[in-house]
Amino acid sequence: MKQIKVYGPGCKRCTATEDMVKEAALRLSIEVAVEKVTDQREIAMAGIMSTPGITIDGKLVHAGGLPDKAKLDEWLSA
Prior knowledge:
The chain has about 80 residues and is of the alpha+beta class.
């Protein structure tokens, strides 16, 4: 199971990113645990300067804006 964290203060883009991650995992039949991180300190400690951000199994894969669907599929499949 992949551990995914979506970082952001709770804005529409952050919520949309979380939904995109869940939809991609379902479409690809990949088991994931998605955690939403809204604490500004945790976001900064993760090295994310622009939200939304995504980490997969502790590795930062995206920061700033909505992720590209093809890239998201690639990250989840890796």
